[in-house]
Structures are given as C-alpha cells and as structure tokens.
Amino acid sequence: MKLLRKLTSASGRFALAPGVGSTAACRRLLLGLLFVLATACAIQAQSIIANAQISGQAAGGGGYNYTITLNNTAASTSPIGTFWYSWVPGEDFLPSSPTSVQPPTGWTDTITHNTFGADGYALEFIASSALINPGSSLAFKFSSPDSPAALAGNSPFYLTTPVGTSFLYGGTPFSGASAEIVVQPVPEPSSLGLLLAGALGLLVASRRRLALAITG
Q1: How confident is the model at residue 202, as a pLDDT?
Q2: Residue 116: which residues within 8 A CB-CB, separation 6 or more?
Q3: Partner residues linked to 182 by β-bridges
Q4: I need a labelling partner for 167 at 20 to 30 A (CA). Which of 20, 80, 99, 112 fits?
Q5: Alpha-carbon span 11 to 5, nearest angstrom
Q6: pLDDT of the residue at 212
C-alpha cells in the first residue's frame, strides 16, 4: 500500500507539469491575440478627413490651366499618400484626357482610363516621399481642354457623379486609410465680386431699415 501511495503521489506530481505548460501556452496565445486585435483596431481607427478646391484659368488655344489644392485637415489621423482625382474604383470621370500634368515635388502622376466600355479619364498622384500630413496642404497642377464649367458639373460618362469626385489613400493605392471627397470649384473672381457686392448691399439695407425703425 505504501508503495502504491508513493507511485500514485509521484505520478500526480509529474502529471501537473503538462497542465502548467498548457496554462502558460494559453496565456501566451491570449496575449498574442490581444496584441493583434489592438493593432487591427489602431489601424482601423486611422481616418482621412480632407477637402480640396480647384481653380482654372484660360491658357489660350481653347485650353485651361488648373490648380487643385488638397487639404488634409488637422482632424485626420492619417497622412495622404495617394490622391486619385476624378476617380473611384473602376470609374474615371474627366471628359477629356489632360494635355499636361505637373505633380508636386515628391509625387508622381499617371493618367488613367478604362478602355473597356464608356469611361472617362482621371489623374492618379502617388507620393514617393512627401506625404501630406494632417494639418498640411499641397497643390497639384494640370492642363486640359475641358472648361471650368465642365469640371464643375457631372461626368458625361456617369451622369449622376460630379467630375470632381476623387479618392484618397493613406499610402499607395488601395492601402492604408481611405476617403472619398468631391473637389469643389473656386468661384471665378467676377462671380465672387458679385457675391460680395450683393452681401454688402443686403447689409447696408438691413442697417438702414434698423435705423428707420429706431428713429420712427
């Protein structure tokens, strides 16, 4: 009996070893999973909050020179590494192919066009070094036969989509955070002057009515 108890006790002690190892392995596995989930949540939490404006000037010969100012707002938590103007996955919106493109320093450009079916053109800008960090802006320039009115309207190929509809990525195309924006046209100086004049006229008229009401 004593020998049996000793054997039983010894086997029990040795049987604990796998249990201890399994517990440690489970703990390591759980910590690993928590790390992966935390990393995934951090990546998912990155977001781009941006806006852009386009201004154009006649260049002669029926062409126009355009400048797009892309603003990565301070509210963003991701830089911008790709600016794909007049494009969403699978669709290009520009009526005509740009005649020339001038990317900013540290960026490269490509004119994209889907040759299958009715499709327009787009401009893909990719950062090779100088990403647009939150709170920063960058200017992109190109020339086109399309008028400012054409770029301010809807695409002739996708009738309900504005030509300025564009896509942003935090890194190279299809990587990092992403966002869709619509590049807004800057009002022409004449239109802006009329708008300011009208606002000033309304202000003067309202003050005059207020003065008459007080004296009356």
Answers
A1: 60
A2: none
A3: 165
A4: 99
A5: 10
A6: 52
CB neighbours of 123 closer than 8 A, spacing ≥ 6?
A: 84, 85, 86, 87, 94, 98, 101, 109, 110, 111, 112, 140, 142
Q: Structure pTM?
A: 0.69
Residue from 75, 43, 68, 77 nearest 182 by CA: 68
Q: Classify 113 as helix, strand or coil.
A: coil
3-class DSSP state of 171? coil
Of 90, 106, 58, nearest in space to 165 by CA: 90
Q: What's the average model confidence in pLDDT over 93-111? A: 98
- Three-state SS letters, 198-213: HHHHHHHHHHHHHHHH
Distance CA 143, CA 72 (A): 24
Rounded Cα distance between 86 and 207, Å, is 45
Of 43 and 169, which is predicted with more confidence? 169
What pLDDT does residue 45 have? 73
Residue 111 has pLDDT above 50, yes or no: yes
Q: Look at the alpha carbons of 198, 203, 204, 205 in this order and tell me if their dihedral is positive or negative.
A: positive
In 3D, which of 47, 66, 67, 52 has the Cα closest to residue 136?
52
- Asked if pLDDT for residue 17 goes beyond 50, the answer is no
Instruction: Name the nearest CA neighbour of 68 among 49, 84, 55, 82.
Output: 55
Check if the beta carbon of residue 106 is closer than 8 Å to that of residue 173.
no
How would you classify residue 197: left for phi > 0, otherwise alpha for psi between -120 and 50, otherwise beta?
A: alpha
